[in-house]
Amino acid sequence: MKIGHLRLIGVFIAALLIVVAASFYVGEGHFSVRKLDGAQLRSSPIASGKSSTETAVNVGGNDGEGAGEVADVTKTSLRGLKTGSGPFAGEAVLLSGDSMSLGKAKILFDRENFPSLLNGFERKYSGDPEAQALKRLYFSDMKRQLSGRSDISGVDFECGTTVCIGALRLKGGVDDPNLVESTLGKTNPVYGLMETSDAVGDVIEKRFSFSVDPKVNSISSN
To answer: What's the whole-model pTM score?
Structure first.
């Protein structure tokens, strides 16, 4: 086989691998992994996963279906959050070992569950000095990044000692796919960023979570 043909086949295989790595489907949910080139990666503290090129996972779907089996602590905490009579495991509901949990996020980022998750974080960590210091640090940076925008109708943000969660609301019904990623990680490190978009009327809510701990820098499918 000629060298030219071998090179052509090599280019085709490389292109195919990039497409597969950039987008994959699990059940009915669509999960996409955005990537940065080397120069961008070196200038950005955002990182998710042990691969040096992965920066954010988009959690598709709002119904929580197709997430697979999740830890009992997630279901127990969710029942407790909604009824007000039960334990809340805090940031552990979004973790799987030393990784951010995609399966748990798919359930907890549902529009029916996320407000309870925010309230649970607020109640559990309101008296924790470390969590409150992290909240002030990251929230002040977010406000600076959003100060020049007129399309933001609301912001929610809470932190534990390892995980922070939040939501950005865009008015006008026009999505900005890069809003969360461009708002976070400009000054302070962000790891294992997971996000989803949910349109309610003419408002698009971008829900997200991330780790502030470099030891919790990967995303697990569990």
So the answer is: 0.70
